[in-house]
């Protein structure tokens, strides 16, 4: 028997995915009684799921209308849940391109700042990059992804900028959308990408701020170009 938390997560994920997929189009009214009947859950579970969807901008309660699905222009597009749902939809490649373009404006600056700070924060960046290189050589995609997540988190948190550090959750969610069996796009360039990460790590540890920034820009730009090419 699923726990109340499990029921809530199931309802939330199902409704969120349907909205992002377009199965529930903008303007659609979500009636709590219908959701209760479909999922066999309590009204409190439905209310909590709708509350979370509202906090993410996917729905909005309207007086005398009901809870109405909102267009994508209202969504919290940097929220990890929304990134995960978009990653499982037809917007996968669009989301990758858009967020990689955003990262182009953030990660080179983070690399510069992390190189300026040096120390343990910089060491963590290089250690994660070296783990990526080892995982690439071993053909271990799961270890590669975990090291990739650690690399970008270390780079962003090592900057000392709390806004950049907060963005690490967004980057992690984006990276983890690549793991579905139907489009495991990491393995196509693992060894080359690992080498680009290592170049950033070496520059950061060497406290070469400009080199680190340029290497981070090259890393993100190349990844963006690969996704654009793959999208056709």
Poorly predicted runs are: none
Q: What is the strand tally?
A: 3
Supply the helix-strand structural class: mainly alpha
> Biggest β-sheet, characterized?
3 strands, antiparallel
Shape field: elongated
Work out the strand percent: under 5%
**Radius of gyration over C-alpha positions, nearest whole angstrom:** 20 Å
Average per-residue pLDDT, rounded, comes to 92
The helix/strand series, from N terminus to C terminus, equals: HEHHEEHHHHHHHH
Number of helices: 11
The helix fraction, in percent, is 55-70%
Distance between the termini: 44 Å
Instruction: Give the strand order, joined by hyphens, for the main sheet.
Output: 1-3-2
Outline the structure in words.
With 232 residues, the protein is mainly alpha-helical. 70% of the residues lie in helices and 4% in strands. It contains eleven helices and three strands; from the N terminus they run αβααββαααααααα. The chain is elongated, with a radius of gyration of 20 Å. It starts with a helix and ends with a helix.
